[in-house]
Amino acid sequence: MDKKEVDIHKFDDIRPVIDSEVKEAIESLVNNEDLIDALRYIEPELNKEELVKTMRSCRTKEEFKTVLAYNAVMTIAKKTTFSLTISGRSRLPEGKPACTFISNHRDIVLDAAFLNVMLYEVGYGLTQVAIGDNLLIKPWIDTVVRLNNAFIVKRGVSGRQQLEASILLSQYIHHTIKETKESIWIAQREGRSKDSNDKTQASILKMLNMGGETKDILANLMSLNIVPVAISYEFDPCDFLKAQEFQQKRDNPEFVKSKRDDLLAMETGILNNKGRVHFTICTPINQALEKLDPEMEKTELYATVAGIIDREIYKHYRFYPCNYVAYDMLNGTKRFSEMYGLKDKKQFQAYLQGQIDKIVIPDKDENFLKTKILEMYSNPLSNHLSVQE
Questions:
Q1: Cβ(355)–Cβ(332) under 8 Å?
Q2: How many angstroms from the chain centroid is the CA of residue 309?
Q3: Alpha-carbon distance values, 129 to 59, 100, 197 (Å)
Q4: Whole-angstrom distance, CA of residue 87 vs CA of residue 76
Q5: What are phi and psi of 258, to 5 degrees?
Q6: Sign of the alpha-carbon dihedral angle for 230, 235, 238, 242
Q7: CA gap 45, 68 in Å, rounded
Q8: Predicted confidence (pLDDT) per residue in 251-304, tens digit
Q9: Helix, strand or coil for residue 259?
Q10: SS (H, E, C) 215-257
Q11: Other beta carbons less than 10 A from residue 369's beta carbon
């Protein structure tokens, strides 16, 4: 067994499947009725026999991703988006080195899935994707995501276990970038930013540093070729669920979502209308990191790097009429009235009320819920303005 084999088996608990495991993984799925039911949500006319035949024809992880996963994601895009686009490809590093794509986080499943197909379309290849183990609600989901090149982020562990899990995760990311030379995607924070006030968590950067080969934080981060990505959804299908959770936590500080809540958010995000969806590849941050003082105090250094990533994302959001309407409604202004018409405003107001109407909870506070959804659509614009001004 050579060094690379030893290395990869060190990560067995969190890594995607490798090609020698693909056949066994697919066989564990072909007769899983839960998987078939889930796929029928996306494609009601699904022919199970043809699906099984196609699955069994995949002998490598790459074949599974480019044949089955790619087609599934594009089917979702065609059914639930008005458009799915990407810009900024000229900012991708020359020579297509493996990169660490760090983005804001809107949808549990589709942020990484959409980015992957967009990168594939522009010839950059598919990335490995970080996914929290809290979403692996059933064993077949675990198998599917690992076949789709996801690696697992351990959630809900504490103390020494959390430190060990973070070190292993960081080592895996460094191994993937440097040894297997595959790009990865990770969100800028743990979990979605439910109010869309996107900020990179220092803890993510600390984790990324842990697996580096040196004691130089900047050198370790630069070795990962970090490229920020700005994700802009016209409509977030889960906005009402996020608003609902805000009230539940306001009314009961001990409130914790159930696995069923996570599953509902996954289904809602995948199956419902998102309008226009755009990804912007931002400027890689290595050049900015080179200018920083490596002797800077650690807390300040992490905060500075997080700020660099945030500014890139804020600068490169794409905005839609609903963002401008939400900003003016929330702030009681007409600042952006030239960016939308009366029809746009009426349509968004009707959409807003329709989403609020979906919420069924005790002591429903419509004014609070409305404010929370307006914040979701206006915060990216507010952050964009903060870096423009």
A1: no
A2: 15
A3: 21, 10, 22
A4: 20
A5: -90, 170
A6: positive
A7: 16
A8: 999 999 888 898 899 899 999 999 999 999 999 999 999 999 989 999 999 999
A9: helix
A10: CCHHHHHHCCCEEEEEEEECCCCCHHHHHHHHHHHHHCCCCCC
A11: 21
Structure token digits, residue 135? 């979403």
Structure tokens at 163: 């430190």
Torsion of CA 358, 359, 362, 368, to 10 degrees: -130
Q: Integer distance in angstroms from the first to the last C-alpha of the chain?
A: 57
Tokens matching residue 74 = 């594009």
Check residue 65 and give its pLDDT. 86
Residues β-bridged to residue 81: 275
The C-alpha angle with vertex 127 and arms to 387 and 5, in degrees rounded to 5, equals 135
| Span 130-144, pLDDT tens digits | 999 888 888 899 999
Measured between alpha carbons, how far is 170 from 155 in angstroms, rounded to an integer?
A: 14
Structural domains in the chain plus CATH codes: 3-235+275-318 (3.40.1130), 237-272+319-389 (no CATH)
Q: What are phi and psi of 278, to 5 degrees?
A: -135, 140
Residue 58, burial from CB neighbour count under 10 angstroms (0-12, 13-18, 19+): buried
* Cα–Cα distance, 113 to 318 (Å, whole number): 19
**Is the pTM higher than 0.90?**
yes
